[in-house]
Amino acid sequence: MTEVNANTLVDNFIQLYQALNKDNLHLLERVYDDKIIFADPMHQIIGLPALTQYFAKLYKNVQHIQFDIKEVQQNNFQASLFWQMQYSHPKLNKGETIFVDGMSQLRFNEKIFFHRDYFDLGQMLYEHLPCMGGLIRLLKDRAAK
After folding, report:
1. SnoaL-like domain location, by residue (predicted)?
2. Which string of DSSP letters, residue by residue, matches 34-55?
3. What does each C-alpha distance from 133 to 12, 103, 118, 119, 139 come to in angstroms?
4. Of the candidates 6, 30, 17, 4, which has an alpha carbon nearest to the alpha carbon of residue 83?
């Protein structure tokens, strides 16, 4: 892939995630290969239909989600994006906004065929669960001492 095409694909990926919601998941096909391998701390998913289903479940109850891209490093075949996600969910953190720092590793030819997200699952989820959040924060504080 040429540098220009790689830049365009990464720019399209960023624009997609800035606008993605439960009503436009069909747009994933614009950047992802049909045989996409997607991995995050919770799942490994193979194939665009499975990825679309996964995102449909994730986005179903999210009230707000936004990605702020902090840095992009790329060449003609791969990219690393450092980001902060802001989201709110009615059952987490009393519906207040949650901030999650993360990084996405992308590999591509004409489209993205590999996408792996790295983030702290506690920061995203566990620390904000009503029963577990306080305990997890206490454990993190004690481990830091």
Report:
1. 15-110
2. EEEEEE-SS-EEESHHHHHHHH
3. 36, 23, 21, 17, 10
4. 17
Question: Which is nearest to 36 in space by CA: 107, 104, 102, 103?
Answer: 107
Please give the structure tokens belonging to residue 74: 């790329």
Tokens of 99: 């901030």
In terms of phi and psi (left: phi > 0; alpha: psi -120 to 50; beta: otherwise), the region of 25 is alpha
Q: Give the global pTM.
A: 0.86
State the Cα–Cα distance between residues 69 and 63, nearest whole angstrom.
20
Length of the chain: 145
Is 3-119 CATH 2.60.40.790? no
User: Is there a contact between 115 and 36 (Cβ–Cβ < 8 Å)?
Assistant: yes
Q: What is the pLDDT along the chain (145 residues), one digit of tens a residue?
A: 777 698 999 999 999 999 999 999 999 999 999 999 999 999 999 999 999 999 999 899 899 999 999 999 999 999 999 999 999 998 888 889 999 999 999 999 999 999 999 998 777 776 666 666 667 777 767 777 7
Compute φ and ψ for 15, nearest 5 degrees.
-60, -40
Residue with tokens 């992308």, as numbered in its chain: 106
